[in-house]
Design goal:
The complex is a heterodimer. By secondary structure, chain A is of the alpha/beta class. Chain A has 8 helices and 12 strands. Classes of the chains: A alpha/beta, B alpha+beta.
Amino acid sequence: MNATAPRATILVVEDEPEIRRLLHTAFGVEGYRTVESATGRRGTIDAGTHKPDLAIVDLGLPDMEGIDVIRQLRQWSSMPIIVLSARVQEQTKVEALDAGADDYVTKPFGIGELLARVRAALRHAVRGVSGDTRIVLGTAVVDLERRTARRGDDEVRLTPIEYRLLAALAKHAGLVATHRQLLADVWGPTHETDTHYLRIYMKQLRDKLEAEPERPRYFLTEPGVGYRLRVDE
Amino acid sequence: MAPLRTLSGYAWAVAATAACTLAGLAMRDRFDIVNIAMVYLLAVVVVALRYPHGPAIATSVLSVLAFDYLFVPPHGTFTVDDVQYLLTFAIMLTVAVVISRLVERIRREAAAKADLAVEAETERIRSTLLASISHDLRTPLAVMAGASSSLAESGERLEPDERRALAASVFRQARAMADYVAKILQMTRLDAGAIVPSRDWNALPEIANATLDRLAERLARHRVIVELAPDLPLVRVDAALIDQALGNLVENAASHTPADTVIRVRARRVGDEAVVTVEDYGDGLAERDAERVFAKFQHGTGGARGPGLGLAICRAIVRLHDGRAWAERLPDGGTAFHFSLPIEAPPTMPPETAEA
């Protein structure tokens, strides 16, 4: 069973009974408890009564927009939210992430992929409390608080913006950070559409911290969505 | 027949007759009455050419009446002295009916021919689609139904290895089918013009790496070499779409070449364009197929699965970005698939010293 998340409760807001059953079974095997809601309205109520550790929200609910479910949950809860989206919902997916969802899985998905996202999200929720400011990326180690960075035995000098960008990515470690979130965090809300800033600074971070910058392992791109800072399991 | 068109036909009948009458009145002193009849005949022909036989007949009747009343003696009456004017009337009527009938038939035949051409093309796509569905969906469905039913009905009597293998094949086939359906939907949306690229500044190496990570499993049996020029400027593209376009080229290379061969993914600047290339070292494309492979429902010789839409989708996406997609046979065997994207003046960014 999963030692890091003993009997975590997962809220599944999904209208398709077959998919609910599938998730129920798969999560059960991993030792998670599942609460199932067939509608968005039900989901927001169940979230209040069951206090789940994580929510999975389908973006194609019949009674209300998945995005509105996320906004309602975010009003009072900081639990990780993973959205399930169809391939054609590219834009909705980004809106859901901007509205506060932490990650997404595209239907049809393999359970392995979904479980990896769930584990990353739960770990992230735990780490948020621990307040560790060190980031380990293979042989590179960055301390965000002391502002020191090394790759192997070499000291690496990062600029203030590079530190800020790394901190913004680390806030979502293992999860997706959208362009808008990163730009607002690092450059401020007036630069939310200056995506080219990100392209340039992400390249600098890769050049300084990745072992193979041209084939990155940690600073991953989610085309059209944002970036994901990979953390080794 | 559209009622509006018929109405305007009758308006034309009246107008043409009136115009001929005016012309006839002007001609009256210098021209023979027979020539005036010819002018009316002209009106009948013109109306018959443009409108159905109703307005044409109306024109001939109106013309004969006007002709008779104003020009045939005794003037100012409808009495006909000479039997030959009855012949004029008969000829006008016949001309009106014959011409309008002829024109109507030609019009109908042209429309039918156009319908037939559209129908034939629709029929071709429908039958290729059906053939493709029966070939590419029936087999995986049969595998999925067979494997999952044996798991459901006699799973406990199977060895764990066998169970895993059956379940894995259901998963693999389902993935392939999902991909297949997604490609058909995507092609339909591209054809319908329903896809508007949301363009933003992007680094091609970032997109290429995301594509290769996404397809890592498909590429596991090939040796992938990545050559991304470091000086490549940012391009203004829809990253998710370009990811698809490149992914389709990479999948195409992987499915048409044997295991352990090299697939080379390159991106570089050529003049005002960024050119992305996927090279494979299979049998190579016949020169005459270089253009054909980009057509819809086109399968190569490798007996590859899928709807044969990958390259057509790639080209449609690249064209949405004002780029080109083409293929060429490499001199030492193998095939290179390229697409180009225009390079625009890059946006500026304040230097960090000023900001930090």
